[in-house]
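We treat protein structure as text, and this decision shapes the records that our systems exchange. Because each token names a local backbone shape, the row as a whole describes the fold. An entry from our holdings is shown next, in its original layout:
>
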Amino acid sequence: MSFVICTTDPAETDPLLKIWRLIKRKTIDPSQALFSLDIIGLQDSQTKRILNAINICREYISEGHFIYLSWSSIQQIDNIPKYAKDFWSFRTSAYKFEVKPFRRKGRIKGLEDLRKQIQETKEFIKKVEKQKKPKMSLLASLYFNLGEQAYKTSDLELSLKSWKKAEKLYHQIGDKRNLSGTLGNIGNVYKSKGDLDEALKYYKEALKIDREIGYLQGIITDLRNIGNVYKDMGEKEKAEEVLRELKVLKSKK
């Protein structure tokens, strides 16, 4: 494997965008590279700018299918959820590192690729569960990913089963941010199954948690989901009430 090191130049505070441009120009093969960013020792203002930029461009990691490592001090880790909340929650997408880093060439092309991913995730879950003291956060992340993979193949039963296991694990370890996201996904499954009452129940549970932790983007997503369910139920007044609150929140972003 080749190693591409992205240095932290104070004048260049958008490392993921830089990596993305290299990939798009075909300067680098992301399946044969590991990108490393060292923010240890930077001033707080520099760290904040870099984390904000990473938060905005976090989707480039999944889009480019590349491995990204960020080196930081213990004090800086505490600041990541403050300045890069979405990126911090997005970490659950990195799930398989065994003898060598897990690499996938190119983008997902079809159903067969998804099925292979599902099988790999299931096998890895079995390995983790066989450990004497399996890491709960890792298992929760794996079940969350399995739910996403199954949902993309329209396997609603597997996605529901996987996300409910993730829900239980996130609840046990007290990870409210990922718990709310999982509850929202469960609501999506029930909505896809046509069970609007159950969908509404889970969306409201997600909203309650996001309000509790003050996660604005999560609240906006939850309200949008709730409004859509009310609309599908024919509850126009309730849908409009949610829409009004949604507009107020969006104006605060």
